[in-house]
Give the backbone structure.
Amino acid sequence: MGTEQKITELNKLREQAMAGGGAQRIEAQHKRGKLTARERIQLLFDPGTFEELDPFALHRCTDFGLETQKTLGDAVVTGYGKINGRNAFIFSQDFTVFGGSLSKVASEKICKAMDLAAKNGAPVIGLLDSGGARIQEGVDSLAAYGDIFMRNTIYSGVVPQISVVMGPCAGGAVYSPAITDFIFMVKETGQMYITGPAVIKSVTGEEVSLEDLGGAMTHATKSGNCHFVTNNDQQCLEAIRRLLSFLPQNNMEETPFIDTGDDPNRMDEQLLHVVPDDPNKTYDMKQVILKIVDNGDFMEVHENFARNLIVGFARMGGQSVGIVAQQPSIYAGVIDVDASDKGARFVRFCDCFNIPLVTLVDVPGYMPGTEQEYKGIIRHGAKFLYAYAEATVPKISVITRKAYGGAFVVMSSKSLRGDINYAWPTAEIAVMGPDGAVNIIFKDTIDKSEKPEETRQKLIADYREKFANPYVAASKGYLDDVIDPRTTRPKVIKALEILRNKTDTNPPKKHGNIPL
């Protein structure tokens, strides 16, 4: 066979690999509102940059008639290319081939891509659309999942890992995305669950639909497993490109700098009027965030989960930052079990990848009540504290209003190695709110008073006058400055600049024991 014939043969085989499960199955994929594995890759990567790995790989199963059913490349497309001009690796499960099920060879392809990503310091993205383990391969398929889980774990904190649930993801398969840094889900088509509705009904008697059990909004609002929800494949892939623009390529890189054209010294008069005069009135902390970050560009993470806490990515003076902020308009911004988990996870991600933390504080404390205590608010709240204390990235905080009790300490305080701590003149820093403090400190005085309620209100006013301001904390060095709200953006950007070369370390150890 001459060279030209061999090239012809090569091209023929490549066409077969590109065809996946064939035209009929591709059409069925489109009818479900889903793109194919290769179409998704083409949309995600910069045009013309994707290079495929292992397009000729074949499964090695000879049981149950599978020896006669082989598709080049098997049930996953893997490779590398550029996203926003920077390297990235990918594996994209192909539902048109054996329902995207995981075979030993599919796992080998995925693991090869992950290993290359780690060695070359580039993010790895998994597009998940699979019926689960390939049952015909038995224990080989289970071991194949274990190989992936192992790499998810050892490469955690080394390169960003992003999971994108664009179809079914069931059983043991869900543990790979659970270990990764961020999970995207597509509404209606993306689903995650350990056991499906039929098994649940047979074991517990509960009846539940696939969407209610494991759909995007269920995981975005109730379980907190999902960080980003999108309406379709195209919107999802664009959101991934946006997220990666905020992130460094690996744990040895600094965060990317982009000249956004937004004046670092820009001030905003409206910040004077965000915090209401009445301390019991709510306001929207997102107004503050959008006014101080570059061009109002804020990519919120976990937007639908634990909404009393806001976390997400932005740029300030062109530098990527992680924003953590209370949301006073939801449960007064109190810290509960879910907010603790959400905040701790985000803080630790930023610390892994050298992303400075900007914290906006308005917190009345931890959520009281038996429900929270029984759910373990002590343990969960400690995760949040642990994450801030452990973090060695630049940490800047601004207290806009309340900072009470242990919640004041948790939120990037000086005690937890906060670098620069600011407060607005509206800040109130105390062990607890005026009402509760007066009821405890002056209980006897109030009980003995002829006009107990009048006495109580006077004592509350006195307490508020003494502690409902930031100057006591500032006088003791717990705050670095009390600032005009209008100057928040330039002050934070200058702090980021001075902290750019910050070095801080933790004692040598294998790893800490965070209260999981």
